[in-house]
Give the backbone structure.
Amino acid sequence: MTQYDYVVIGAGSAGCVVANRLTENSSATVLLLEAGNQATKPEIQVPEAWQSLLGTEVDWAYWTEPEPYLNGRKILCSRGKVVGGSSSINAMIYIRGNRHDFNHWQELGNPGWSYEDVLPYFRKSENQQRGESQFHGVDGALSVSDLIAPTVTSKRFIEAAEQIGYNINPDFNGAQQEGAGMYQFTIKDGKRHSAAAAFLLPILDRPNLTVQTGTLVTRLLFEGSCAVGVEYLHQGKLHQVYINQEVIVSAGAFDSPKLLMLSGIGNAEHLRSLNIPIIADLPGVGENLQDHIYVKVGHRATQDLQPASTSNRVEAGMFLHTEGSLNRQPDLQFFVSVPSESHNEGVGFGIIACLTNPHSRGSVTVRTTDPKDSPCIRMNYLQSQSDVQKLVRGLRIIRQLFNTDAFNEFCGEEIAPGADVQSDEALQAYVRNVVGTIWHPVGTCKMGIDSMAVVDSQLRVHGIDGLRVVDASIMPTLTTGNTNAPTIMIGEKAADLIKAQGKVLDSEEAWQRMASRFR
C-alpha cells in the first residue's frame, strides 16, 4: 500500500507553495497530484499570449448555468488545467488586496489573518525587482517585476487619471491602494513566472517529493471522521494512496467543493439526493461563491498600438473608492486594455471597470456522482442591483478618462457602448448584456465560525481530522484586486500551520498505522 505523510491535491498557485514548503523538511514525504499536464505549451511563457490559452487543453473551460440576471447568458469560467494551475494561464497581475480585506477576515472570527499577520507571508514569497522595503521582500521564489516596455497608452491612462483629479500611486501593494499607476507582474526576464516556475520546478529533485500529473482525484478516503487517503484516476485505472498526516485539498474554488461533496462532505440534503454517503453535514460547501466582474468602454484607435511580447496587454490601472468612508477599501478597479491588432482593421482599445466587492453570491454543486463531470456553477452575477449601479458609475468614470487631453491623439469614436447610450437605464441594460468575468472565483469553502463556514482559521475542515483546504475557496470575502497573490499567500501561511501541527512518524509508527487499516 502506497503511503505518504501528506497528499496535496492540485498543483496550482497554493498547491505548489505547500508542496515546496512541506518538503523543506527532508523527513516529510509529499505526493502532489495534478489533473492537468506539464506546462509545455509555448504560449504559456509569452505574457502577451495569455488570452490565447483560454478554452484550450490547459483550461478546464467550465461554463456557468444560464445566468438569470444576464438575460440567460452562459459565462466561460476559465481555470488552469496544467501544472501551475491558473497562475499558468492568468494575466500575471500581482495585487495583494487591501489591508481592510484581511482585517475583515479576522473580524469574521479568523484569528491570525489580519493584514499585519499576512504581510510577512506576502514578503516571504516575493522577489521584488524594485528592492526590499517595509512592504516588499527580495528573498522569495516569486519574481514580481515592472514591465520591460509598456505602451504609450498605459502612460497616457495615468496622465488622464491625474487630469481629472485622481492621485498617482506608484505601488498598489504598498502603503495605500487607491490611485492610478502601472501594475506589477509575475514575470521574470520577459516570461511568465507561474507558481510552478517559482515554487515547484526548482525543487523537483527533492527525493521526498513526488509529482504526478494527468491524475484526477475521484474521492477522499475516511475512517470515521478522519481523512486517511485519496482515490485517484490515472491512465484509466483507479488507485488509492494513504497518508500519515494530512490530505490538503488545493483544487480551487470550483473543484475543491466538488471533491468535498463527492467525498460526502457538504449539504446533507443535496448529498442524499445523489445517494452519496454523508461524512459531514456542512451546508456551506459550494456556497458563498464570489467573483470579480467587469464592463468596458471601447474606442477606435487612431494609431497602431501594438504591445511588446513581454506585455500582458493590461498594463496600467487604478483603484477608487467611490462612496462612503475613506477608510474602507476601493470598490472599483480599472484596467486599460491594449489591442493586439492594428487600428487599420478597425480594432480599438478600451478601459475596463471591475467591481471589487460585489454583493451578489453564487454556488457550486455536483450534478452527478461521476468525478469526470463538470460542477454545476451558478454565479448569480448582478443579482444585486447595487452591483449594477456601481458598474454604471465605473462606465461614467471611464468616459471622463477618455475625454481628457491625454487621450486626444489616440481616440476615435466610441464603439462600446456607443455615444447614444447615455441614460442610467440604457447603461444598466448595457451592463447586463455585456458584463464578463476576470476569473477570480473565491469563497466556496469559506473560513470562519458561522454555520456556513467550511474550514476554521487553521484551514482544517470542520468536524474532520486530517483534512485541510488551502486555496482561494477559503476566502470569506473577495480581496480587492486580482486574486493570485493572496492565493499564494494562503499557501505560504497554510504550510506554516501544517508544519506547526505535524509530527513526522518514524518508520515503525508509519508501519503500525498502515497495518491497522487492514485489521
In short: The mean pLDDT is 94. The chain is about 25% helix and 20% strand. The two ends are 14 Å apart (CA to CA). The first helix runs from residue 13 to 22.
